Amino acid sequence: MGKGGMSDGDHADRCCGEAINGDVQQENMAAWLLGVKNLKIQPYKLPNLGPHDVRVRLKAVGICGSDVHHFKNMRCVDFIVKEPMVIGHECAGIIEEVGSQVEDLVPGDRVALEPGISCKRCNLCKQGRYNLCRKMKFFGSPPNNGCLANQVVHPGDLCFKLPDNVSLEEGAMCEPLSVGIHACRRANVCQETNVLVVGAGPIGLVTLLAARAFGAPRIVIADVNDERLLIAKSLGADEVVKVSTNIEDVAEEVAKIQKVLENGVDVTFDCAGFNKTITTALSATRPGGKVCLVGMGQREMTLPLATREIDVIGIFRYQNTWPLCLEFLRSGKIDVKPLITHRFGFSQKEVEEAFETSARGGNAIKVMFNL
Fold it and tell me: Between the N and C ends of the chain, which has fewer C-beta atoms within 10 Å?
C-alpha cells in the first residue's frame, strides 16, 4: 500500500511551471506505457481547451483489468499498444478551467469523467448506442492517451458533478460500476430475476452490486478463489460456489449452483470470459433464460450448442450510466468503498508498485491512485 508524505509526483507538481491559457500551472505529468511492464512518469502536453471542453485536475484514478492487460502484454483483445501511451481510464477530479461554451460546470466542481468520446454523428450514436461508435476515442485504449496524469482536457458533457456525499474515489469507481449497470440493463434484471455471476473479480463484484440495486432477489456468485468468494459474500451475495478451472467439472458444479438457486437461474453474467465459464453459464441457466457475456478472458471461445432457447447477449463498455451510478452512490443503494483495497500516490515507484499489485490479483480488488 502506498506510503504517506509527499510523493515524487507531488514534488513535480510544486516545482515545475509552464504557462497554460495565461495562467501559471505546474508541468503536466502522466504515466506513459512504453513497453511490456515499462511505465514511466513523463511530461504530457495537453491539447488546447476547446469551447465545450474543461480542464480537470485528476484526484482519483483506478486500475482496470484492461490496463493490466496492456501493462503485461501491450494489448487487450484486439486493442494493441503500438506506440507510447498514457494509461488509465477510471477517474475523477476537480474542474480547473472551462471552455467558453460550457454552462453547467465551473472551476472547483468535483466531477467523475466518462472516458469515451464518440463521434455523435454515426447511426449508432444517433440511436443512443454510442458505446459501439467505430470512431470512439477512449481514455487509455490505443491509440488514445488515458487519464493517469495530473490534468486532462475532456468534453464538459462527459464530466458529471459528484453529489456532496460522494467522494472522488467513489466517482472514479463509476467507470467499473457502469459495466455492471449496463449489463443489468441489457439483461433486464428486476425484482423477479434470480442471478448467477461467474467470476468474482472487480467486474463480477460490481455486477453483483448492480444486480442487487436493480432488485434481484437472489444472487449466487461462483469463482475459483476462496478469498474472492469471501469478499463476494461480504458484499451481499446470497450464496457462493467454489469452482475449478477444469472444464470436466462443469456438470458437478452446475448441480451445486442449481441446488442453491432452487427456482432456477434466470440470468447468468459471465464476468470472466473463458471456455469453462461460458460453458458453466449456458449449462446453469434455466430454459428461456439469458446469458450475458461481460468478461473478455479469451479472444475466441468454443460454446456448447444451446437447445433450450437461452438468449446470449453481449455488452461492450456502457452507455448513459453515470447519472444512475451517482444516484445509486448518493442514496447508499450501492457502496463501492469496500472494493478499494489498495491506495498509492503518483510517484514513479508507486506507479510501478501499484500495477504489479493489481497484476498479482489475490486480495487486490481495486487499486486506486490518489493524486
Answer: N
